[in-house]
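Subject: mismatched residue count in predicted assembly?

I count 897 residues in my input, but I want to confirm that the predicted structure covers every chain. Input:
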Amino acid sequence: MRPGFVRGAPYFMASIDAPAAPSRLGRILRQVGATLITLLITFVGLLAVTFIISRVVPIDPVMSILGERATEAQIAETRTKLGLDRPLWMQFGIYVNDALHGDLGTSIRTKKPVVAEIARYFPATLELSTLATIIGVIIGIPAGVLAATKPGSLLDQAVRLIGLMGYSMPVFWLGLIGLLLFYGQLGWVSGPGRLDAAFDMTMQFELTQYTGMILIDTALNGQWDMFANAVSHIILPASLLGYLSMAYISRMTRSFMMNELGQEYITTARVKGMPERRVIWVHALKNVMVPLITVVALSYAFLLEGAVLTETIFAWPGLGRYITDALLVADMPAVLGGTVVVGAVYIGINMVSDLLYRLADPRAR
Amino acid sequence: MKFDPIRRGFGVAAVAALMLGAAPAALFAATPADTLVIAEAIDDIVSLDPGEAYEFSGLDLVNNTYDGLVEIDPTTLAMMPGLAESWSVADDGVTYTFKMKAGLTFASGNPVRAEDAAYSLQRAVKINKTPAFILNQFGWTADNVDSMITAKDDVLTLKVDKPYAPTFLYNCLTAGVASIVDAETVKTHDVGGDMGNAWLHENTAGTGAYILKSFKPNEGYVLEARPGYWRGDAKIAKIYMTHVPEAATERLQLEKGDIDIARTLTPVDIAGMAGNADVKIQQDVGGQVYYLAFNQKNEQYKNAKFLDAMRWAVDYQGMADTIMKGTVVVHQSFLPQGYLGALDDQPYKLDIAKAKQLVADSGIKDPKVVLSVRNAADRMDVAQSIQNTFGQAGITVELKTGEGAEQLKEYRARQHDATLQTWGPDYPDPNTNSSTFAENPDNSDAANNTGYLAWRNAYDPGEMTAMSKAAVLERDPDKRKAMYEEIEKKHRETSPFILMFQQARNTGLRAGVQGFYTGGAIDAAAYWLVTK
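Triage response: the counts match. Full output below for your records.
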């Protein structure tokens, strides 16, 4: 038990006793500086590891591009054009320099800048994973809390069973069954893709695409029919990924809460006659927020990597499929670029969850 | 941080409302009447530049946005005049003249001139992308192509380096690489001397039935019909191609009516749709052939009896009926059905006793084959069947699996022992396969003739090289046909290749869709004749 932790009062006092402004500013600057340096080192480390892996794999990108009929002259020319004839350290130096200038190279296969391609694929993944995470949090946390309050009850068993199913069922199978049932049989949702063909063409040729996220773009364009269509397309993959995320979040919430409800301060609160609802939903839940933030952040970051199988089944043009497709044809600039973005997402989410810790737990301030 | 259960309640209600609101929209999903919605795995597209496109999906798009001097009628697969009205070959056998059709225009409105045709062919040779070799066969190189291909008024003159069979040139001119581009438009998009290659990656400048409205790699493309197409206006105004890599997903979409055509269906999906009156299946063949090849750097593969033993140890029909059901037909010669001179007979079948006897006769003790296989499910299935039947015949097969590009590298470097491969013809002329399977002008390592499959397997076809070279010069079509038949027979009886299958294609269509032609083994798909 943390000493003096009752109803959050000592935290509040601590913030009043905070040191004077200049030294606090200094501390914040130091923290930001340290974070930036860590960030830079992490990035370069990430680039180095990915780069080395991409160069030692026994896949020749030149063969992937040119295919079976290529002549030796064409192979040599392409090798020179891609800079693959230079020493490895020089290739890496050029790559890091370009990456730090916002240039992740050109996709070998599509011959488009990797940055532009990721800018096209990432919003699709961002939209899907954000919605999935919202679903996961909205259902997962209350389910976990309720299960923890009545361990062994029917509700608890149900939460655990549903969680276990989410853990163990292959997402590929779940996706296909989901499509078969909700799209094929019941017709409740639209099929694969982000919009129906007609709407997609309107979107492409007549409307402004502000963010690349269809829900937001259709809303900003005031196209509510199209918005509804986009929702009907996204809801099934989002629910599916949301279910997986919910399974994880509810299990973790349950275990954190059970631990928390056994603490002495909870007994104290109950002895003092505090309503049970307040004990659980305010005091106990507040204290599991810190580990829960990590759980949610991890689950969100995982989804943002792009769920390859889900994206394949739902013909969803997302980051996971982009990276996987690139990998299969040894399009290394695209793979490296995608990996850097995923790395950046992890770092970004870490930073945000750091920030949230500080909001949730004053000791971290 | 506070968690308010009441607010949470609002969240749930909002999601539920969104789901309910979306449901009616989903119920009425159907394809628009003026748009043909096609689902296919189109991630093979490398470029839309006709001088570079060389993959099935890319060539489909090129076929619908460009035309060549000579075209193929999608309904009969017969050769027909394209942008050239007529053509002739001079007595010297090396000078061809093509008279251009009058009054045709590109999508830009520019007239189609002989200069455009000359520029297009010269350009394809000069940018020297993968399909350039189809044109290089006529002796055209970046250095001489400007003098070999010339235009004056409405006449295009092509000079070739040898008196080839005229059909050989005409057939090659139907390939995507010989498509005619709008020279004036392309020239305005030249970047650093690339002859518009970067721009044509995702734009079109042709005379075809459609123009490209948008292209998103790995996602799809949209084509829009242009009025006044010389073969008659396209029946459907827009083509909406969507990249759907998963066959089961395509099947669902087709059955629900969200797409009109599904092109990546598996035999399981085909069987699953039987009895559904809303959809129909159209079957035809593609040009790809499946073969086993044995590297003659290993002496055992020079033993005629042993090669014969292996030919009798493959369960051709069994595989075609089970693991490869619906995706292949048994085919035992290197020219696919539909090609001039293709042999459709099937002299070999699984005969373990005969194979065993031949192994014994060969004098090879405990023969072992290391078979390189691409790590794709269908290839693995075939390899395992071969492992099994070869095993019964007393031949031990060790499978060596790997990624496709890696295996290709090994194959091209003649480092494999045996390999399971496919080969797709490059243009609708028998020379495309005859030259690679049955010719090997120099079998030395130094020659590095990777373009010849015979060379890759260190196989010296002997007199077949000369026979194949003679066939491409034979000007009498009937004689030419007989020559290829003779080469194929000899090849399948003596070479270290075992031809097993030809690709079969299954296209799923909504019941109302008519007039979709895939191009069979020799051409690409045609969208402009489709109605629904």
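The longest strand of chain B covers residues 279-294. Marking this ticket as 'not a bug'.
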